Amino acid sequence: MNRAVFKCHSLKKHVMKSSKIIILLCVVVTLLILEIFIYSNSLDIGFEFETVTETQESYNSIQNAPVKLLTSNRTSNNDDQDTNKNTSKVPLEGNWCHAKKQLSEEDYQLYKSELNNWYEVIGKSRLNENPSAYADEDWYPLNALVAPYEHLNTEELLSLALKDNKWAKVAYVQQTTNPKYRQEKLEIAKELLVEGMSYYALSYFVRDELVIAKTIYKQTKSRDKAKHHIENALAFVLWGLENVNESGLIAFGAITSKEPFLSFINLDEHNREHNENIRLKLSKIKELVSFQRESKGIDVQQPPNVAVKEFEFNVAIMKKISPEEFKKVEQFNVSDEFSFNKLSCLERNLSTLAETAPII
Description:
This protein is an all-alpha fold and about 350 residues long. It has helices spanning about 1-10, 20-40, 50-75, 100, 105-120, 155-160, 165-175, 180-195, 200-220, 225-240, 245-255, 270-295, 305-320, 325-330, 345-355. α1 (about 1-10) runs parallel beside α3, α7 crosses α8 (about 180-195) and α8 (about 180-195) packs antiparallel against α9 (about 200-220). The radius of gyration is 20 Å and the shape is globular. It starts with a helix and ends in a 6-residue tail after the last helix. The model is unreliable at about 1-15 and about 35-85 (pLDDT under 50). Keywords: Membrane, Transmembrane, Transmembrane helix.
């Protein structure tokens, strides 16, 4: 992790052309690496509570490095010449894949504004569990919406969440909690999924299923029982991909890249039973969400074009930094609505990311 940040910081010494674009790519990729690092180190949260303190300390020790890097890059590149200012730009409503590289400055600012509006719709407001630390907007998107709840303890936050305070609910599913609150967190995550504020709720479901899989295997050595929960996790990942939400993919890639998933409870790609099980589980999730939305009269907003473009770029980053885990999701993609091959910008984004290969 530190090596990735260091290389991103030193990249500007070697690449002068399009430096601002390269730096932005570094920031985006490093942010996803940071998110993956946090997911992978929070694997036991909810079942082995004694690891929570250690996980939080690890998080606190690394969270300032990316923020300092971003601040440094902003300051040191104020006088850099934008080598792309005279290149042909694509209008926001046109056929583009990379916002910073292809949009005019005016359209890029509009893109960021529309993207933040979408983040608010899907509840992508990241909690800073160390409120005294600086929460840069790039690392904590829309943090201001959940910041009022960061100082609350679990009981206080849960009380507000149970009163249908939507941002308290978003904060609660992100907060590190004692395992005795697991059932309440699952119920609140379900509510967020139905309401369309699904970003952190979805990642919680994926992590929860994988934590159960690991715990079952550690306690019983039963691979079959553990694999049942990996199937559940994949069903949630696919539901997210169908709904332009990559958070489940990020969580799955981070956690299954470590043991015991690599060697002991990995799914067999040649076992057709897995595919059928995942298909049934995905169908059940979709039916339950649709039924709840219809019964409650909830009409979920469809993602705008800027959200789709950002989603495709983040999927490309995941394929770049977690190729084996990405391949596993591809192998078990039983969705009738989503296909990686239909992502028009995936290959173009991968080519763009190849320019930042040294930081990965």
